[in-house]
């Protein structure tokens, strides 16, 4: 049987890992199970040509183990290209813990997860992602040195989210320069979907610049708090994707640009922090281009966090972190212009730069 003659669900049964639609020549996929703590985790190592596979751990109440596997495969692949396009000597990896971070996360579970990370001898280095806090990484640090994103008083670079937000802000400004001829966001309406660690900080930058900020979240309490603090308007419409705004900033979860939403966008720029914003990178990247919607590739503009944690490994300080993150503006503008000149999607343009860097390194060996 070949991939062509099997439908997705049948393929999953026939080849549960290598046959996953999101499997993209990943080097290693590790399933971690511990009965005592209830840990069920999957570590995905996509590529280590440029360096150790670094990427955060996400704790999420997945509907099924298939969803968790699919997520870790997609996310770890994204990390490979994020580090490559950003010029870091890191490979791509990610981990998912299946469960509710609010009710099922315990220090014992995090330590056990850390032991699994340690068993990979540094091939995978973890950090925080959705459902994780700096304090959780401190707990993991008790059992392995292969963790970043630990707190500043423990020698880490601290919470990466504000740096991620700053990079997204830089990428958004570059997209504005490309689309509107000016990077100035004053008066532009921006809908930030998801006002968590990154989203809130992005709202802060945008409000200070005089953008008209709309916010959307499933957490009503946060909506009220962020609205009050920054003067942002809570989006009340029925269709967040069809909102009449200049810029849509997805900062919650991925795949919000999909077959169902793509024809509804009125925004002329999509620039946000969420990983894997395009449900289908190729197809939706091309459709956005045809529609004249400028998409600032997620893995390019949300690299501030990885720049921040990379500092822990390379030993550089805040100044260099901010300089590297600010440079996301230049890289984004370059890639948007390059995509335009070559008639390809912005996603493809960014991917090509990343893939070339990996191929060059491989050839040097
Ligand atoms: N934290 C980082 O440094 C970093 C780095 C790179 C990428 N990212 C990505 O950015 C996104 C946000 O990360 P974060 O650290 O702010 O996460 P977070 O968990 O702090 O915030 C996510 C927010 O999205 C909200 N949300 C969830 N589902 C939603 C929905 N359907 N509609 C509206 N809101 C919804 C949640 O209530 C929460 O407020 C994630 O996709 C993450 O992978 C984060």
TrEMBL record:
This is Leucine dehydrogenase. InterPro entries: Aminoacid_DH-like_N_sf (IPR046346), Glu/Leu/Phe/Val/Trp_DH (IPR006095), Glu/Leu/Phe/Val/Trp_DH_C (IPR006096), Glu/Leu/Phe/Val/Trp_DH_dimer (IPR006097), Glu/Phe/Leu/Val/Trp_DH_bac/arc (IPR016211), NAD(P)-bd_dom_sf (IPR036291). Pfam families: ELFV_dehydrog (PF00208), ELFV_dehydrog_N (PF02812). It comes from Salinimicrobium catena. The active site is at residue 94. Belongs to the Glu/Leu/Phe/Val dehydrogenases family. Keywords: NAD, Nucleotide-binding, Oxidoreductase. NAD(+) binds at residues 194-199. GO terms for biological process: amino acid metabolic process. GO terms for molecular function: nucleotide binding; oxidoreductase activity, acting on the CH-NH2 group of donors, NAD or NADP as acceptor. It comes from the Bacteria. Residues 158-365 form the Glutamate/phenylalanine/leucine/valine/L-tryptophan dehydrogenase C-terminal domain.
